[in-house]
Write a structure and sequence with these properties.
The complex is a heterodimer of chains A (260) and B (72).
Chain A lengths: L8 E3 L2 E3 L3 E4 L6 H11 L3 E8 L10 H4 L6 E4 L7 H15 L3 E4 L12 H13 L3 E6 L3 H9 L4 E4 L13 H10 L5 E3 L5 H9 L4 E4 L1 H4 L4 H21 L19
Parallel strand pairs in A: 3-4, 3-10, 4-5, 6-7, 7-8, 9-10
Antiparallel strand pairs in A: 1-2
Helix pairs in contact in A: 1-9, 3-4, 7-9
Chain B lengths: L5 E6 L2 E6 L4 H7 L8 E4 L2 E2 L15 E9 L2
Parallel strand pairs in B: 1-5
Antiparallel strand pairs in B: 1-2, 3-4, 3-5
The chains are: A alpha/beta (260), B mainly beta (72).
Chain lengths: 260, 72
């Protein structure tokens, strides 16, 4: 049996035992978000950097619900459409509490939310030089993934499908090619719709998945958080167990010898 | 009583009137910002939170105060 305790995910020299990273956006409330995270077993959560509401100080703070000492905050650059904005955001994120592990996401189109890979690549180089540990949201393009790796990325995070689309993995072959070429943590980020999508990602050899909308917007977010947790474990076990070869014709499971 | 001159600055996009010669620290204290949970920019430059009591604010200064919120 695969010993999942020993099967850790190492990102930028830090060990994690959960391979499910969850986003903290789109929940009905902070307490719903916190409970879903707990049920998902996630050890890393993505967070956004935004202006403090100075006119309403009674608004609940994320840090009051999710303790950054217990759960690793992964600040993201969601909503940034060029390198300048992304760098500004992550430098501020680092200032909040010394966060160096960050998620870079530079979007290129407001409708399909595909990443602008030229700006992403530029930002990765700068961030790596400034000592950030950069997990990079990217297209499922093996060549770009390679260039990100060469630019100092700490994890490659290709999309399964557009952000929030729930379409699941569209380009399995590309993901497998990226898996073959990189030793960096490979994490599917964006586009998953249901738990089985996470299992497929893990069976393709990915090191983890990042899920937000599929859990937060499910009719029952708590149950879906649990479903994703189990799906990631199942997929990882399946991948590590070595699947059988595919054959075209049938192959009976019971011996043909001794048939009466 | 001596009249204290006021100056206008912008905090998170909103115009605020403050006493001339206020320090950044005083202004942040006034609007009750939990310093350990935020990052601060003054005119697009990140400010070391340890130095805010030494920074005097000037007319038209732009302050940005950010924190973490839910996001994917």
């Amino acid at each position: 049996m695969v010993n999942l305790k020993k099967d850790s995910l190492i990102i930028a020299n830090k060990k994690f035992y959960s391979r499910l990273i969850v986003g903290t956006g789109k929940y009905k409330s902070m307490s719903e978000c916190a409970k879903a995270i707990k049920l998902s077993g996630a050890e890393i959560v993505t967070v956004a950097v935004r202006r403090v509401n100075i006119s309403n100080k009674n608004k609940p703070l994320l840090m009051d619900y999710i303790d950054p000492k217990k759960i690793t905050y992964l600040p993201n650059t969601a909503g940034c459409f060029n390198s300048k904005e992304a760098l500004r955001t992550l430098r501020l994120a680092r200032e909040i509490g010394g966060w160096k592990l960050v998620k870079l996401e530079v979007l290129g189109d407001k409708k399909n939310l595909f990443p602008d890979m030229i700006e992403t690549l530029k930002s990765t180089e700068v961030l790596a030089k400034e000592g950030f540990k950069v997990m990079v949201y990217c297209n499922d393009d093996p060549l770009m993934a390679k260039r990100l790796e060469n630019s100092g990325a700490d994890a490659i995070m290709p999309l399964a499908a557009p952000i929030g689309s729930g379409l699941g993995i569209q380009n399995k072959i590309n993901i497998q090619i990226i898996r073959k070429q990189t030793k960096l943590p490979l994490i599917i980020d964006a586009g998953l719709g249901q738990a089985s999508d996470a299992t497929i990602a893990m069976e393709l050899g990915c090191d983890g998945v990042l899920v937000n909308t599929a859990i937060a917007k499910a009719k029952k977010p708590f149950e879906m958080a649990l479903a994703f947790k189990n799906a990631v474990i199942a997929g990882r076990q399946s991948y590590k167990s070595g699947r059988i070869d595919k054959i075209l014709m049938g192959n009976p499971s019971s011996p043909s010898k001794g048939i009466i | 009583m001596k009249n204290i001159k006021k100056i206008k600055i912008k905090i998170n996009g909103k115009i605020k009137s403050i006493n001339q010669d206020s320090t950044l620290s005083e202004v942040l204290k006034n609007i009750k910002i939990p310093l350990n949970k935020v990052a601060i920019e003054l005119n697009e430059e990140i400010i070391d939170k340890k130095k805010i009591n030494k920074i005097k604010l000037n007319k038209n200064d732009k302050i940005e105060i950010v924190h973490f919120i839910g996001g994917g």
